Amino acid sequence: MTDEPVRTYLNYRPPEQCYTLQELDITYGQAISDYAISSPFQLLSSTGIEALKSEILAEEVQSQCKFSCERTACCLRGVSRYCPLLKRLWSSQEVTDIVSKIAGVKLKPVMDYELGVCNIQVPDARGDDALVDDWHTDSYPFVAIVMLSDTAGLVGGETLVKRGDGSVLPFAFPSAGSCLVMQGQHVVHCGRRMVSGPGERVTMVTSYVPADPCLPDRSIMKGTWRVSHRSQLYYGWAKYRFASLAAQANARLSALENRPEAAVEEEDVQDIMAWLTHMEDFTRKTREEMLSCEAAYGQLKSAQAVSQQA
Ligand SMILES: [Fe+2]
């Protein structure tokens, strides 16, 4: 089954509309582009939906990948090591090309650990207004969110987005397998509960960074370490950051190799210095993210120890 071509699992229909940050009155700031969010569009075929659902129900996924935090009551993370089709589908060039085309910038999935993250609605004593995934911006620049549950005739379950003036714009998933692509690091958003029907709401989320290592990448781990096996997250983080650094160095090396030595001028020297600064900042940020996550983890463990003694 998992040997079928990726297209077997897709039923792509392009989105009818895409919004820019400007149209939503959201400050551009350090965004990678003016792209904000697409209207939901069909991405997966019924075969794809069923195959992914069946993979995430596997015993190892349920026992090894389930996390919760204040923001999300139940999520599955780091699932791709147990789910071969999920890994192949979300790593595929076909799906990456679709997401990139919609976002208007060439993207790549950030790391295997962040492929096919599932947010699952579970009963919440706070009632129907409690959010499945609280208001936030993402740790990584872009995201594709796919609805895996059947939404026909049901109320709720939308992704809600905040405009710059504070008003809320709902994006309802019209069917199972529908998807939206968002610059989630710059668009404040949340997941609303399904308030009618069986109450099942499962979304699958994959995060992206620019494929061009020379574009700005302000990824962080602030929102992810609490719901991760830290060593696995750091492993993925380090691989992605080292690969980016290597690609940045190679891009600069190629640029220098294509520049005849005799033509080198003062501005080339300034350019080299600027790139060294950029790579130094990138390296420092890579380490600082790990350090700040470890510091926050240490504080959490201390607070838990104190509350257990009380
Ligand atoms: Fe998000």
UniProtKB/TrEMBL annotation:
- Domain of life (superkingdom): Eukaryota
Q: What is this protein called?
A: Fe2OG dioxygenase domain-containing protein
Q: Which organism is it from?
A: Coccomyxa viridis
